[in-house]
Every structure is written in C-alpha cells, then in structure tokens.
C-alpha cells in the first residue's frame, strides 16, 4: 500500500447534483431514436431550428418561480453588462423570442421542430435530472383548432413510428380554459393570485404520480415528502378543494371518448349545461368545451379513434403560459422491472396552446401551439420494450505499432482502411505489444493489424481476429498449445489488407 498522501491541490472528480454522463452505447441508440422522430416531424412539414442554451431572463418570462435573483426553478447569472441571463428551462420560450425577433421574415404559420437540452434548478431525484433533453414541434401564427388537432395526431404517429403499439399509449387532451374557469369560480383569479394558481396547476399535474390524497395536501397547507422536505401548498379552503375535485372527476367529459359519430352537438350542449350547474355560467369553460369539441371532430375525421386520442379533464400541464388546449402523451402498456415489480412510465410528452407567449414581445396577438417529447423518459420506455437498444457498436480495427520508427507506415495502413469505409485507428499510446492487445480488447475491436520485422520482410501483414480468438481461447487450456496454434490469426500481402479485413468483418457480421 502506498503511503503517498493526496495533494492538497488535487480536485475531486464528481458530477454536479442532478447531472449525468451519457456514454457511447446510449448515444448511438439515442441518435437512432431522434432520427426517427425527426422523420415524422419532417413528414408533417416542420423545419429544424436551433436556439441558444441561455437567454436574457426577461425573454424567458416568469413562468417558473423566481425572486429578486431569479434562481428558483432556473439557473441564472449576470453577464458583463450586469444583465440577468438564464439557462433555458424549455424550448418554447426561446422559440417565442426567435419568432418575435424574426417576425416579418418567417412564414405564417411558422412550423419548426427542435431538440436540445433544457435546465431546471429543481431538487434532483431518482430519474429526475437538472439537465434533460426535449424534442419539440410548434406551429406559430394560427388560432385554428386544426393546428391543435394536428399536434395530437403528430404525437400518436411519433409513438407508433418508435414502436409503441396501439393500445400501448394514449394522447389525452383537455383545455386550460376549463381549469381557469374553475379557479375563477372558486375566487383565485387576478394578478394577486398568480402564485396560488401556479401552485394549483403543479399540484394537479402530479395527480397521476401522487394520487388524490397527496394532491389534496398540495392544494391545502402543503406536503412533506419522504425525505422530510416540505412543499408549501396553495392554501385553498376545503370548499375550494372540493370544487377542484368535482371538476377533475367530471364524468360528462368522458362522453367525448365515445366512438359514436352521431349527436356530438347534443353532447356538447349537455356538457356546457352540466358545467353551468356545477360552477355557474362561465364564458371560459364554455369556450374550452367548444374548442375540445372542434378537436374531437377533426381527429376522428382523420381516423384517430378514442383509443388513440381522448379527452381527459385531469390534463393541466405544469407551466403557466398555456392558454387553451393542452395535451399529454401517456404510455399505458404493462411492464415489470428485473425484480418483477410493476413499472409505470406514464407521461412521456405533452404540450398545448400558448397564445400569449410570443405576444409578450409584440403589440399584436400571435397564437401558437406545440408538443414536446421528454426524450430521456421515452428512451427508457423504448429500451424496456426492446424497441431501442443501447447496443454496443463494434470497436475500430486497431493497427498495432511494432516499431516506433515506422509510425508513418502504420498510420498509412489505418488510412487505407478508413478510406475503404472501415472504422480503424492506429495505436497512439506508448505501450508495448501486450498492452496494445489489451487496449484493443477493451475497445471491443474486431481485429488487430500486426506487421513486425518478419512480416515486413515478406511484404505481408498479420490479421488477428479477436472475436474468433476469444471464442477459441476457451477451447485451448495449454499455453504452449496456444502459442503453437496461434488461433484466428492469418497473414496476407500488404496489397490485400483492405480486402481481407472487409471479408473478415463480413463474416463476423453473419456469425
């Protein structure tokens, strides 16, 4: 054991809380997933766009909690001009800034898709990170409910393209105007109640995760989690909480799930009447129901049944900027973990209409709607289903350096292989033959190229099949026998190097 003490200047290698490293296997599988989503979005006519990872804080708006120093919910800092800058917490607020800044140059409606990391300065936990990836599609510049219906159809088509079968997911739709009408009815409208309304939204948004009893605590005085941390509630009265529960259990809206195509208008008028009896007359609630009616007609006309897209009043979305229809993509298939326990993936995406977000930058109304996929959660679900794999890609063919005076020759061999489309590298370390072989093994290399003095004199190279060698090693126990047999190792002329490696890789692919 070494008595050497660590240097006082030595830095401890550690990840910041709520962050994670993503390694090669997952990155490759993730790329395949993102490419599939892009193909669907492109088919719908959306164009790609990329925006910066941080924006001026006032451009992002006050849709997450903040204080004088806006560090609750978002990561913020001051630049050299002493202006507050914040890491984007979603991809929608930066889009609103982009559209406003380029308003005259963009076609209306403006259709874009974007994928990228977003950042939340929130308490991390199992599966909950402060940096995570989203994949969005948005349509800006139209209030037509066809744009909202299209988002629901886009969500369904995307999940199916990724391998989620029908019956394994549901796109749930509601309307923020319904809940806004409920909050008006229970007396928490107005600017002075903005924080309470946001607390209510976030509490209801956790209904599927926590259940009603825990949500009721968040609507009331607050909730203490398993770690002992306390979350302050909305401080609603028991009567106000009861009205919200009645809304969430509003069975009449379930009529929209019916596949029956007749008497829709009668059902709509009945829903409006029931709402008035429950909460009194409300223009907001009536408008919300009529918008849902329009969406239902459009998606059914396009052939999307109630088993794919349905109306569900419990959908609220946790951000305050939504103004109309809201959507949520939920996975419903049954799954179990390694111990046999039931696993529920739940929501893997959502979105809605946000007609006021772009208008913050302009004097005119600019309606917009969008849908966002939570990439990490969906990736986990697809992996569990076996629809996408973190499969380990074959490593590169490694050209070993047997004579350091001939590095240029070895590099030339690696280039010949790369020029032929073969993944290859020359060993660039300083170790000897044994260590180079261990390096190739750790890299998952399918083969190594060897040319020592003997091979060079004959104008040959030796190719060692590492996959076959690994298999045969279990059949040869004697070291002398191994050395004599030199399993899975053969020589070819220098001019046949590329063809021989191509043949070997093709044979390995068939095995």
From TrEMBL:
L-histidine binds at residues 90-92, 120, 134, 138, 317, 321-322. Its main location: cytoplasm. CDD domains: HisRS-like_core (cd00773), HisRS_anticodon (cd00859). Keywords: Aminoacyl-tRNA synthetase, ATP-binding, Cytoplasm, Ligase, Nucleotide-binding, Protein biosynthesis. This is Histidine--tRNA ligase. GO terms for cellular component: cytoplasm. It comes from the Bacteria. GO terms for biological process: histidyl-tRNA aminoacylation. The keyword Phosphoprotein does not apply. The gene is hisS. Pfam families: HGTP_anticodon (PF03129), tRNA-synt_His (PF13393). Its EC number is 6.1.1.21.
